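Dear colleague,

Thank you for sharing your sequence with our group. We've completed the structure prediction you requested, and as agreed, I am returning the results in plain text so they can be pasted directly into your records. Please verify that the sequence below matches your submission; if there's any discrepancy, let me know and we will rerun it promptly.
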Amino acid sequence: ADVWIIFDRPEIAIDNDQNSPYFNSIYVTVNGLYYDSPDLSGLKQGPGMYIIRNGLITQKKGWDVGIQQPPTSVLIGKNGVLLLARILENEKVLFRSTDGGNSFKEIKIAPNKIDDDFCWVAKLSSTSNRGWFVDRGPELVMDKSTGRIYAIWADFNKCIRNDPNFEYRTRGFDYDIFISYSDDNGLIWSSPIKIS
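Please find the predicted structure tokens below.
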């Protein structure tokens, strides 16, 4: 039988900080990739990352480096610190690496407003039973003049469950946009500010 896997949600970051020990490294993360060999949990596919450094491509399996879910954003902070952002079930998190992507420490950015149990789909319109997968973030960006890192994301105010008139039965409703920032290369984050 043919083996196939969805290879989607590619994100890329290039380390162009000349003070970084990983200068010119390229990081590509994906939602799903087929591993060269099983990861620590025995899986042959899942989230992961390719590191391109000095002409060599290295594959990193998500669970093996501490990334349980695929990131929604990738950023290189000061001095080559690699930052990957993701919404997990109960919070927004940052996976932070100071060793060029060989290992990551999980850091909490902010809690989710309500339990995130498959409420990432919104109804297309009030007259439709169709859904739209909402890209809630977080997205990361750095102000290069100050080094301040910003995270922005969408949170829903209500999770509607068991809707018999909706194709996915569960959906998020009434989304707001929030922003938070870090002045220490992603270690500590400000309280979220609602901007919409």
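Summary note from our side: The mean pLDDT is 85.

Kind regards,
the structure core
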